[in-house]
Amino acid sequence: MKKKITLLDGSIGQELVKRSGDRATPLWSTTVMIDKPDLVAEVHSDYFNVGATIATTNTYPVLYDRLKRVGLENDRFKLWNIAVDAAVKARNDHGHGLVAASIGPLIASYRPDICPPAAEAKSLYKEIMSELSIKSDILLIETMCSIDQADGALRAAEECSKPTWIAFSVDDFDGSKLRSGESLSEISTVLDQYQPDAILINCSRPEAVSQALKIVSKFGFKFGAYANGFTKINSEFLKDAPTVDALEQRKDLSPRDYMNFVCDWIDSGATIVGGCCEVGPEHIKLIGEELVKSGHQIV
After folding, report:
1. Which residues of 41-66 are buried (b: 16+ CB within 10 A; e: fewer)?
2. Is residue 200 within 8 Å of residue 224, measured between CB atoms?
3. What residue numbers bound the domain in which 96 lies?
4. I want to staple 245 with a disulfide (CB 3.0 to 4.6 A). Which of 24, 163, 241, 287 is the partner?
């Protein structure tokens, strides 16, 4: 069956770190926006040029609590504007597409155990969501690893007028579970309460994503996925203020191998696909070519 497929971009932060030549830091690619702002629009443009229809802003870790650790909290509005403006510029130069405002987990990725409870998280998320929604087309809540974590983010998003997509990260070797250990099937409670516009699985091994989508496909929402290319999220990365060089890139996941996973997700009903960390423009290009070859329409 031929479908209309939204083709996401791939890694943004990781791609910026690689291209900048800078050392990895706990703030990931945030400093690139200060030192080399033109590089951000360049990355977005490269994804559009290979077929992506979404530009995901480089705002995943640009959160008040993360910036405060390094004394940059007063620069948050400046950084948000640089990130969003770069995505908007690339979209406008390309002529079409949407801008998705990336909003990552508070405090740290993959650590729902130290995330503030939902009521507190809502107040922390409210400022960034209000600001990013001004120029963006979609709010993209990413890498939610527990039900309460998702609840807090969705509470804040509910007060914005933009479509909301929420992406959950699952156990690397058991896609039926969130990284918190909770059953993925239990997210139906927050989905039914907040009614997001799309449900995604992200930043997990593609094998686990395939397992997770079998569950997500039963919820009745538009759904999709974008996996990472790491061997796993290891214990070193779960320590305080980690850097991405603590993670190992897979050597058995070529662009074609990744594309095969994506095609399987589409066969299972996914209509939003792309890539996360370690998935770059070469992967997205191959996916786009295969979608067109198969008769799907990229929208």
Report:
1. bebbbbbbebbbbbbbbbbbbbbeeb
2. yes
3. 4-298
4. 24
Domain with residue 133: its CATH number is 3.20.20.330
Nearest one of 298, 195, 290, 246 to 24, comparing CA atoms: 246
User: How confident is the chain (299 residues) per 10-residue block, as mean pLDDT?
Assistant: 95 92 75 90 98 98 92 95 97 98 97 97 97 98 98 97 98 98 98 98 98 98 98 90 84 97 98 98 98 98
The tally of domains found in the chain comes to 1
Tokens matching residue 213: 């989508």
Distance from C-alpha of 272 to C-alpha of 266, rounded to nearest angstrom: 8
Spatial separation of the C-alpha atoms in residues 120 and 67, rounded to whole Å: 18
Tokens of 42: 């360049």
**Contact assessment for residue 151 and residue 178, using Cβ atoms and an 8 Å cutoff:** no
How many angstroms separate the CA atoms of 204 and 229, rounded?
A: 8
